[in-house]
Amino acid sequence: MDIKGKWLLPTSPQKTWEALNSPEVLKACIPGCESITDTGSGHFEIVQVLAVAGFKTRFSSTLTLEDPNPPHSYVLRFEGNAGSAGFGLGRALVALQPTPDGGTQMNFQATAEVGGAIGQLGKDTVDGTAQSLAETFFSRFDQVMRGQLPVEDSVGMLDRLWDLLPPWGWAVSTLVLVFIVYWGLHGTW
Questions:
Q1: Which of 78, 75, 57 is nearest to 66 (CA)?
Q2: What is the pLDDT of residues 33-52, one digit of tens each?
Q3: Is the backbone peptide bond immediately before 71 cis, with ω within 30 degrees of 0?
Q4: For the chain, does the N or the C end have fewer beta carbons within 10 angstroms?
Q5: Which residues have C-beta within 8 Å of that of residue 54, sequence separation ≥ 6?
Q6: Mean pLDDT, rounded, for 44-64
Q7: Domain spans in the chain, listed from the N-terminal domain onward
Q8: Residue 112 belongs to what H/E stretch?
Q9: C-beta of residue 10 within 8 angstroms of C-beta of residue 144
């Protein structure tokens, strides 16, 4: 299957490039994305749940950025495995061009191959689903770049508290917790 298109974005190529390489932004934009992990050097591990013609299945995927030319272009290689439901392999070329108004035109061209049960659904079904997923991704990406779709920060609540409290605050909190646990277990000092 082949998918290609272009999308006009309100941000500069540099800002667009940074967003395309942000795990938080990608998680907000990839349909069905449950988790994304940046494993370094342009490699991402993704878990997503997709529904394709009645098949709802979990994919474990890897994305690899190849031939990066920041902030202009890269090749994105992807491999997805959904166990007995099937697999997907492909590559996409993403190119960013500045527009006269200070924005970016993002051009993309992708080829993919699917197999297994999903691959047997028929070319029209698979192509339609792939086109829909691409449109959803780029629509969400556009909303993120315009500030219309929030992006979750991957920093957890405990990490935020750790940054807010000074070291003496953690020491006092730990002593109070020890007191509560001891008192709860023994009923007295």
A1: 75
A2: 999 999 988 899 999 988 77
A3: yes
A4: C
A5: none
A6: 86
A7: 2-145, 157-186
A8: strand 104-115
A9: no
